[in-house]
Design brief:
This protein is an alpha+beta fold. The protein is built from 21 helices and 27 strands.
Length: 748
């Protein structure tokens, strides 16, 4: 039979269940005979022999054998290790813990035990999700023939049936709780509503409707954190939990085995909830899926195919986890073991070495203020290309096998291995496919353009993450030396590019990591394109020319107005495009009303062809602020347009100071909400200057417009002054608010 791999997961011990989406639209459940293996290394062959005969291994394993593998990423030769084929794929980590307890620290070194079984299956058989395959069922299991390629750009996909699931709860308090009655169930944006009758009847009708419609994807919002836990609680209360089946398998809906986790990423505390899996279908929780929210379904499928993770897993995995899966695949193909716990330590460095090494990427502080005729040149995926072209990986930097390599790290002189590292091998598909998609996107229109944009967008995020994972302390194949090497190459490339520009008479206005803003009196598009080609030729890395700004404003810090900020600017290109970074219009936590106001101001500004023309439009921009302020005062905005979003930065009960964030956290805790550090919360300011109930959770104000108009107007004034003050220093938030009050007083 022929079809696409839709879902897969461990079944009974010794089985892998695979759901195939057939060419005629039907789905087929297949079962393969397969078990994962973990590997154990030791300096003593006798210890491995004893372990192979131990009771624990006999109870958990199908078989054991000695095999040759590369134990560590840095090993040049294979060594003998013990392979333990584990009968029950869900017990692999449990067995690893038992083995670890039988020896002193480091005596037995365990590998491959925490790789998700479905991913191990895909690695071993060289398959990937949503791959078109031919498969035959036999007595020994499944026989696969891949009819697809992870490198393909215009691949065929089956039409997937999607059902959107929402619920309405009859709330007894501020927020919905498991004890509140179920009011209704909405399917596909309200095209079908299940209401009326006893609660358990509604749940049974939902089960029946899902079975009849047989969707491939069940789309929810907050499905993992509220919708499914709530349905499970109400089903248990109504005595129907034993028939709450929403997957294609007969398994009833169950709570996850493990709680969610809080983690630190790029300066933020985030929370990842445990997921509810619907076996045979894909449960896509839009609120928990970064890849889906950023790149849509096309991006999610591309991520799943490239990184060889099941769709359910890819939809919830961080981009770093997806990248790790791609590295694990390449490790498997090279017969390199995947460590249970990271083992590559930073190499010793002298103080002198650290002074040179620990410097980060290139930064040239912006010349604050407003400028005309500035052009922007950007390197295309510079960091991933450095890793790819310069072979930067944990095991390649300062390798023992190639001390005389001509590939040296700038400034530090470290040698880099002549054999391709695992990181460059993994990111090659990311860099090259993204470049191909960008070219295809430029020549496409409509849905085809949207498809290519989604696919290249998710590959962009993968590329961004490749650099951070080199220095991440929990990365299986990371090492800070490789991270340092990439930064050193970045400094060399950007400084070289800057020198070329200055040699040709261009002034550097700003530079950061992979971008330069340049200016030269009288220079036109052709001059900058020639400069781009010269820089590209001399540095060896591809560069793009973004265009010439009619005007651009580089902003100073709000905390210290005397200091410039590297990534806070806005401007208008000569072709009418605008670019905004670091202000409210680009922040995901800003009320939508503020975003609309700044966009309207920017729409006025971009009509101006010079700084002076922008200054002439400042009075019109002030009128935009006053119009929006009037709408706020008259409460014309829906409460959903006034919502702030934040992540809980501490343990929920650990707040001491009285902030807006702590206020909403306390309210939610009083209502019985289960909160976690890093979890997202949304709130509306209701009475900022009072001592109680300064804020309310956004979900408690549905349909109401009881926000604090005074405070929102003040914050709106700050947002507007961000855009106006660079062109007119008098346009401070205080001035905007004072003039507004004066006009209101005059009208009275």
């Amino acid at each position: 039979m022929k079809g696409w791999i839709l879902d897969l997961y461990p079944g009974l011990p010794g089985e892998m269940v695979v759901w195939l989406k057939l060419e005629d639209g039907a789905t087929r459940r297949l079962v393969d005979r397969w078990s994962p293996s973990l590997f154990v290394a030791s300096d003593s062959r006798a210890d491995l022999a004893r372990l192979g005969e131990s009771v624990d291994v006999r109870n958990y394993g199908r078989f054991t054998r000695l095999v040759q593998k590369r134990e560590r990423l840095t090993d040049r030769e294979k060594s003998e290790v013990l392979e333990v084929c584990v009968l029950d794929a869900t017990k692999t980590v449990e067995l690893a813990r038992r083995i670890e307890r039988t020896s002193s620290f480091g005596g037995l070194r365990i590998y491959n035990c925490d790789v998700p079984p479905a991913q191990s299956y895909l690695y071993e058989l060289d398959l990937f999700p949503m791959a078109l395959c031919e498969v035959e069922e036999g007595r020994e299991g499944l026989s696969w023939r891949l009819r697809d390629d992870a490198w393909a750009l215009d691949y065929d996909l089956p039409p997937l049936r999607t059902m959107k699931l929402e619920i309405t709860v009859s709330k007894s308090g501020v927020i919905a709780k498991p004890g509140d009655p179920l009011e209704s169930i909405r399917l596909d944006d309200g095209q079908e509503v299940i209401d009326g009758g006893p609660e358990e009847e509604k749940i049974l009708r939902l089960v029946e409707r899902v079975r009849e419609a047989d969707p491939d994807i069940l789309l929810t919002r907050d499905g993992d954190t509220f919708l499914f836990p709530y349905l499970l609680a109400r089903a248990a209360r109504g005595g129907v939990a034993d028939v709450l089946v929403l997957g294609r398998d007969a398994d009833v809906l169950r709570p996850p085995d493990r709680p969610g986790t809080s983690y630190f990423s790029y300066g933020k505390i985030l929370f990842k909830p445990s997921s509810f899996k619907l076996y045979g279908r894909v449960h896509l929780d839009a609120s928990s899926s970064f890849s889906y929210s950023e790149s849509g379904m096309e991006g999610l499928i591309e991520l799943s195919r490239v990184c060889r993770q099941p769709l359910h897993t890819s939809s919830r995995a961080s981009i770093g986890k997806a990248l790790s899966s791609l590295q694990f695949y390449h490790a498997t193909k090279r017969e390199i073991l995947i460590p249970w716990k990271p083992v590559l330590a930073e190499r010793f460095k002298s103080r002198a070495d650290l002074l040179v090494a620990d410097r980060g990427g290139f930064i040239f502080e912006p010349k604050s203020g407003v400028h005309e005729g500035v052009a922007e040149l950007d390197y295309s995926s510079l960091y991933p290309n450095i890793m790819l072209k310069k072979n930067i990986s944990a095991e390649t930097v300062k390798c023992a096998c190639c001390p005389d390599s001509t590939n040296r790290v700038p400034e530090l002189g470290w040698n880099v291995c002549e054999k391709t590292g695992i990181v460059p091998a993994a990111i090659e598909i990311i860099v090259k496919k993204r470049l191909d998609y960008k070219k295809l996107k430029d020549g496409a229109e409509g849905e085809l353009k949207k498809r290519y944009e989604g696919r290249q967008g998710v590959l962009k995020w993968l590329g961004v993450t490749t650099f951070g994972y080199l220095g991440f302390n929990n990365a299986k194949f990371g090492r800070i030396d490789a991270h340092i090497a990439v930064c050193a190459w970045d400094r060399k490339v950007l400084v070289h590019a800057m020198r070329i520009a200055e040699r040709r008479g261009f002034n550097v206005i700003h530079g950061i990591v992979d971008s330069l803003w340049l200016k030269k009196r009288g220079a036109d598009d052709e001059d900058y394109r020639e400069l781009r080609l010269e820089i590209q030729s001399e540095t060896g890395f591809e560069m793009s020319y973004e265009g010439i700004y009619k005007w651009i404003a580089f902003l100073n810090s709000r905390v210290n107005p005397a200091l410039p900020v590297q990534n806070r600017y806005f401007g208008a290109f000569r072709d009418g495009r605008t670019k905004v970074r670091g202000i409210e219009a680009r922040r995901h936590d800003t009320p939508h009303a503020f975003l609309m106001c700044q966009e309207d101001i920017l729409a006025l500004m971009k009509k101006a062809d010079s700084v002076e023309e922008v200054r002439a439009k400042v009075p019109e921009c002030v009128e935009v602020f006053e119009r929006y302020a009037g709408m706020v005062n008259r409460r014309e905005f829906q409460v959903e347009e006034m919502v702030f979003s934040r992540n809980i930065s501490k343990e929920p009960r650990g707040y001491v100071n009285d902030t807006l964030e702590s206020g909403v956290v306390r309210l939610l805790l009083e209502e019985g909400a289960a909160l976690h550090q890093g979890q997202g919360i949304s709130y509306v300011i209701t009475d900022f200057y009072s001592r109680s109930k300064r804020v309310m959770p956004a979900e408690s104000l549905e349909g109401k417009r009881c926000y604090d108009t005074k405070r929102y107007v003040e914050l709106l004034g700050q947002a507007c002054s961000t855009m106006l003050q660079p062109f007119d220093p008098q346009m401070t938030a205080e001035r905007l608010l004072g003039d507004l009050r004066a006009k209101s007083h005059h009208q009275l």
